[in-house]
Amino acid sequence: MTNPDSDPVTNPEPEPVANPDPEPVAEAAPAVVRPRRRVLRTVGLIAVAAVLGLVGGTAVGYGIQADREPTPLPPLNQPGLAYPAKPLPKGQEPEPLSAAEDHQAKSQGDLRKLLLPKPASARADGEDGWQSLDAYADGFTRPAGALESELDSGIRRIATRAWLTGEYKRVQINLVQYRSTSTLGAWEHVMQQQRIAISEAKSGSLGVAVKGSSDGRYFVYPVHREAGYLDLYEARAFIRRGDIAITILMSDTHKIAESEIRSLAERQLGRL
Q: What is the domain extent for residue 256?
């Protein structure tokens, strides 16, 4: 009979019995540890070695070049210079070009003297001599645009002469000179005026070449008629000579012969 006041007796766990033939237990494979730091360190050493090798090779190359004798350059393939090595003795210098031969000297002088004189039977009509840029630009359809364009092209000065023959025949000649730093100023001006003359489709052709000029042309326009006004005939010429643009404008109430504008263009060009 069990005493209720006594501690309960727990059954002890049975002791393990040794297995006479134990089965082999598979061991866990050891974790593989990658030598990351060693690999990075090896790569760094290789890069440093490569840089040192490059620098060292460059230094050796400079050293070899410094020890060598300089190699002379081959002679230039050009003829000897034309001017003498020493100044000519006094009294043997070449004569300077005359004004007729030196076109630059002529164009750098008084530009007004290069204008064609007005005929004896004609009378002055408008400005005669130097013309301001503002007054010159006012003669264009769009004065503001013309002023800006001329300034961009390097305009330098303008010489003008205009005369009136009879009652209505008027001739105006402009010599527009551009700065030497803008060698294309005169050419651009002449080409632009010629394009305008052709696009207006008044002359009926591409103009006629001016004798003695590489790019000068003159245009004879057909009559312009408008109710309440007299008939209007026009002829124009645009020529370039160096840095000077020549513009010749003719107008009359009677037909203008082609020989008139051609003669004016050739004579004005000849004075330059």
A: 110-271
